[in-house]
Amino acid sequence: MMKVLFRLFYTFLLIIFFMFSAAGQQKYRLAVEYYNSGEYEKAAQIYESLYKESPNNKSYFNWYIQCLIDLKDYENAGRITQAELKKNPNDVSLYVTYGNLLERQGFNDKANAEYRKAINNLNPDPTNITNLANNFTNLAKYDLAIETYLKGEKLSNVENLYVYNLADLYRRQGDVKNMIKYYLITVEKEPSSANIQTSLQRFLSEEDYPELQKQLYQKIQEKMDIPHYGELLQWTFTQKKEYDKALRQAKALDRQFEENGNRVFNLADVAFKDKDYNTAIDAYQYIVNNHGRNTSFYLDSKRGLLNSKKAKVTENFNYSKEDLLVLKMEYVSFLNELGRNTQTAPLMQEFADFEALYVNELDTAIMILEELRNFGGLPPDAIAKAKLALGDYYLMNGDRWEASLLFSQVDKDFKEGQIGEYARERNARLSYYAGDFEWSQEQFKILKGATSKLISNDAIDMSVFILDNLGMDTTEVTLQMFAQAELLTFQNKYIEAIQKLDSIKILFPEHSLDDDVLYTKAQIYKKQRRTAEMIEMYQTIIEKYPDEIRADNAIFELAELYETKLNEPEKAKVLYEKLFVDYSSSTFAVEARKRFRILRGDEL
Question: How buried is 197 (Cβ within 10 angstroms: 0-12 exposed, 13-18 middle, 19+ buried)?
Fold first, then answer.
């Protein structure tokens, strides 16, 4: 019987507790609503009631005092705070609350005395230390918050206990030197430097990096066994795109900690993508020379080395046949060293591209790719890519049917995905070259929905181009001549292509294809590295045919030429601005705006 009565009594108590708890929560929500709507007097009445019901609830006390402050009722706020302080003399944050009340009334000396009491009466309890520092921080009294944490460390007898908090406070103060100092101390507490990189990248301006690098050099000397400082120094150089300096640091770390070349390889890739080919070459060469075949990065480093050298040579308008020959011998040497097999297949493909597109040795390129596609064990997509390139080179060599066969095979094997789309795009273009415009236009129309943005944009351009020009003429002669000129251009038969294009201008003056003729000639001059003639073609399109379909292409490509090849950023900037202002619907508009902002010095 007693057990039953006890259970009933216990259940009754729980019900009463939850009823009061629910009522308290409802009152609290109402107080919050009043406060947020600026009705501080109503909010104060509810918070006062809640505080009296739960005198140990610090949140109710704080909100009650805040309401009185907003009502400028400093007398009552001070009286209640002093009463609370008598009850809880160890709660040093109450001194800050009282000091703030005095300061609001203009009693600055008395306020400062209360703040000093708070720090002087601080004890080693981490909660008290953090609460007091947070109270000072909320009042933007960062010096006092810093003093609190530093004293807290002494009381706790734990060095660098509040290092993160101190770094943040120095940041708020604008004290860059100390902010960096404490952020760097956190490196010793963190197994990774990723978090510190995020903080530094967020809070440092470009002019702060020399101070960061200075402190990092000092840390590296003091803590030689901690790699993270060296990593951070490398990161700072990478942020500023000083890849050569970053590489020196990466090499030092690689040697000091007897690594496998991983960090050097990653930096080489970054430098290559940012077109710093000299640093990329240096980095890849370091791995090849210092790690050799003992590292898993050897093959990729050799390949990266060749790609970097190729890019350095071919992206320079002034390369010679001798430059190409030296590079060709390096490809041959590497393949002789490691053999022609599935492992070196990607390099063989790149070598074939080099032979076809730069050395103009189509037969050699075809021979390499024929060998490659017959390797056993190659992934289907690798074989397909080899077939696509092989089809291109057969077409360049005049064998249209073999090209079509290869493209069709890839189309059949890859009905879904981008590889199949590339094959269908090539077959559509083959039909265009052959003068089968209606079938070609239908295929390009289908390819508008391609998953590859590049193919989709190209398909849209070709579909509209064919449709427009078929409708302009009662015959297809002009379009046939133009398609033949484009095929000759693709086959690197530049003299014949220009002759064909000039014939169109003579036979069909002021034709709708005029801008396309000029644009195609610009592409030929680009391949021939005839810069002056290329610029002339682009400028003629921009000036005489501003409303034609090739106008935005001409503006973008001329701007890119000034920016990346001729080192004339001001001319590039003018053209990029013209593109995104006057041709805002162009597919180049977004990229043009981005490049304009970079050239103007904006932070992206």
Answer: middle
CB 513 within 8 A of CB 549: no
SS3 content of the chain, % helix, strand, coil (to 5): 80, 0, 20
Residue appearing with tokens 């073609």: 537
- Contact assessment for residue 483 and residue 516, using Cβ atoms and an 8 Å cutoff: no
**Residue by residue, what is the 3-state secondary structure of 97-151?**
HHHHHHHHCCCHHHHHHHHHHHHHCCCCCHHHHHHHHHHHHHCCCHHHHHHHHHH
Assign 3-class secondary structure to 557-580. HHHHHHHHCCCCHHHHHHHHHHHH
Question: How crowded is residue 604: how many other Cβ atoms within 10 Å of its Cβ?
Answer: 5
Per-residue model confidence as pLDDT tens digits over 433-479: 999 999 999 999 999 999 988 899 899 989 989 988 886 665 689 99
Q: How far apart are CA 155 and CA 239, in angstroms?
A: 40
Type of residue found at 90: N
The Cα angle at residue 481 between residues 479 and 484, in degrees rounded to 5: 110
The answer to whether 373 and 384 are in contact (CB under 8 A) is: no
110 CB-near residues (< 8 Å, 6+ apart): 99, 102
SS3 at position 39: coil
- How far apart, in whole angstroms, are the C-alpha atoms of residue 387 and residue 378? 13
∠ Cα 359 362 367 (to 5°): 120
Instruction: Give dist(CA 474, CA 317) in Å, integer.
Output: 42
| Closest among 314, 406, 317, 337 to 366, alpha carbons compared | 406
Q: Are the CB atoms for 250 and 264 separated by under 8 Å?
A: yes
The pLDDT confidence band at residue 12, using thresholds 50, 70 and 90, is very low
In the structure encoding, which two tokens stand for residue 333, read together? 């040497």
Which amino acid is located at 441 in the chain?
Q
Q: Is the whole model's pTM more than 0.85, yes or no?
A: no
pLDDT bracket for residue 587 (50, 70, 90): confident
Answer yes or no: is pLDDT of 25 > 80.
no
Residue with tokens 């259970």: 7
263, with CB counted inside 10 A (0-12, 13-18, 19+), is buried
pLDDT of residue 536: 98
- The token duo for 43 is 């909010």
Report the C-alpha gap between 537 and 558 in whole angstroms: 10
pLDDT in tens, 237-282: 999 999 999 999 999 999 999 999 999 999 999 999 999 999 999 9
CA-nearest of 173, 197, 475, 437 to 445 is 437
pLDDT digits (tens, 9 = 90+) for 144-181: 999 999 999 999 999 899 999 999 999 999 999 999 99
Q: Which amino acid makes up residue 518?
A: L
